[in-house]
Specification:
It comes from Marinobacterium nitratireducens. The protein is of the alpha+beta class. It has seven helices and nine strands; from the N terminus they run ββββαααααββαβββα. Helix content is 32%, strand content 23%. It is elongated, with a radius of gyration of 28 Å.
Length: 222
């Protein structure tokens, strides 16, 4: 491996997609430059400082490929599964969506893998079977592979009933081995917290009712 005259950079060193071929001093700029071969085959002169800082790691082929991918319309556009994916994102991210208060406004989100990549969603879930819709297994958690399934309307209704009616107290439901408390105010669901016992959760719910609804509108303890 030949040594270049640029600080800490030698011929053959690799920076991202670049491999250093040789070095030369550019008198006009008073800086060392390096002839680098990109993994795509293009040879380009790059300042040593740009290589060391990571500002330049390819001839531009990687960036152009990413831009091209982002502009490519997926073959699933227009299918029912694609519309379900879009609806899921709208509920969680679009504040103008009618369902947003019960989803994004209540802290329900979409995992990073699915948020901007329909192909990832499709790879994990597959095509939606006829008669089924997307269901979150644990309603307190967001959309991700581990918490989603294709389910019938009956399965979804049973799941909602199990989630929402398990404690018998409005706004309080089981969440693993804890109890989650929420309250609606100004058409938005507000997350209050997780509590170790049902009694603690009920007290927190009553306190939230007084805070958001006023003492006259708070429900009487059961």
């Amino acid at each position: 491996m030949g040594k270049s005259n640029s600080r800490n950079i030698s011929d053959g060193d690799v920076f991202g997609n670049y491999t250093v071929v040789s070095a030369y001093f550019e008198k006009r700029y008073g800086k060392w430059h390096h002839r680098c071969q990109c993994s795509c085959g293009v040879v380009k002169a790059v300042q040593g400082g740009h290589l060391r800082s990571g500002a330049s790691t390819s001839c531009g082929c990687v960036r152009n490929e990413l831009i091209s991918r982002s502009k490519t319309r997926h073959g699933g556009v227009g299918t029912r599964t694609y519309q379900i994916w879009k609806g899921m994102k709208n509920r969680c991210f679009n504040q103008n969506d009618i369902a947003y208060p019960r989803y994004g406004g209540a802290g329900i989100s979409v995992c990073d893998r699915w948020a901007n990549d329909y192909q990832a969603f499709f790879d994990d879930m597959g095509e939606c079977p006829d008669g089924l819709t997307l269901d979150r297994i644990d309603g307190a958690l967001g959309y991700c592979k581990e918490n989603c399934r294709w389910a019938t309307d009956k399965q979804q209704a049973e799941n909602r009933s199990t989630r929402n009616g398990s404690t018998g107290v409005k706004g309080v439901r089981k969440h693993g081995n804890k109890f989650r408390v929420d309250i609606c105010h100004n058409y938005k669901q507000i997350y209050i917290g997780l509590f170790d016992s049902l009694d603690e959760a009920i007290r927190a719910r009553r306190a939230a009712e007084i805070k958001y609804w006023g003492s006259n509108n708070a429900a009487s303890p059961n």
